[in-house]
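Input record (one chain):
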Amino acid sequence: MTTMHTARGDDTFTKHESQVRSYCRDWPALFDTAVGSRLVDVDGRSYLDFFAGAGALNYGHNNPLLKSALLDYIERDGITHALDMNTRAKGAFLSTFAEKILKPRGLDYVVQFPGPTGTNAVESALKLARKVTGREAIVNFTNAFHGMTLGSLSVTGNAMKRAGAGIPLVHSTPMPFDNYMGGATEDFAWFERVLNDEGSGLNKPAAVIVETVQGEGGVNVARAEWLRGLADLCKRQDMLLIVDDVQMGCGRTGEFFSFEEAGIVPDIVTLSKSIGGYGLPMALTLIRPELDVWEPGEHNGTFRGNNPAFVTAKAAIDHYWSDDKLTIATKAKGIAISEHFDDLCERFDGLSHRGRGMVQGLVFADAPKADEVCAKAFERGLLAETSGPSSEVVKLLPALTITDAELSEGLTILSAAVEEVLG
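The corresponding structure, as predicted from the sequence alone:
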């Protein structure tokens, strides 16, 4: 462990940084450098990263292909900040995104740059849905997480995060996510009944917002047929369907968009985290053209034009999304994690697992054990976080570019941590 440097660092951060800091409490090291799937602290100790910036580093730390494009751009004094002015970097990104992501998937969206973060994308999606429909209510789902600003919080399920708003969070209606009731038989007959019943008390919603896999909510995976049922319901009831792909997009589940497996086409899609490629702040709101009713400047933000992120985003798409190699590799690695979890679940009582692609969760019946496992894993040099309403799930989000050897090494470390905690 990095005792001397950790103590010195803790003094600095304790003195100057807000109590709201969190990840540094679970991983008390003074990190210095990072390449690929490894971080190194100031004492030279290496840590395998199964966290990947909460999904913002799908292509790893300091990916050399993306770094080269970024350094070239900076070296030639390429524009860094430009609000929404037209720049060469933005035009190149838009063309590449349209040709290599949208067109091959038969998707027709216009791109809005709402600001640098996922919650900016969600806020713009909610505002636009209300503007288009003239309605206020938004349907969200149990255990959802959509961001920390007020609109995004209103459609987030976590009680602790909602309480931080300090005011009532209104105009949203939570509904049960797939399998919330403990079985796989839920459908939307009940939902449609209350929508059609003038005595139900439910205001006609403007939109439904959903994650195909709830990462922060505990790696809850929606079935493809459930998502198709939801999309069909939205069409019948004239509600817009918003898919929040902030964490699960950009290949996390295998395909570029997590909703591709279900064969649905959302009205609005939100992207952030790994869309910038290099971990640079960037977010997109994708809008069906006929819904793009914004007035110029009606939704804006000072940092919506992060040109270095356009450069690394384009480089990531060019390199990783010109064919299906990354998708195939991601699904194979997801299967490897799932099989490893199968073995752990056979060996220890009180464990189960779930996930899709390279987002996988190991679920502990005794919730505090998940935190203990992550702590023991950190002592052995592995970064992994918990999720779920009681932090009962060890959530794995390795970089999609992690090597097979690194993945195996990390899973071995995790197994040792589970063994120590569960005996």
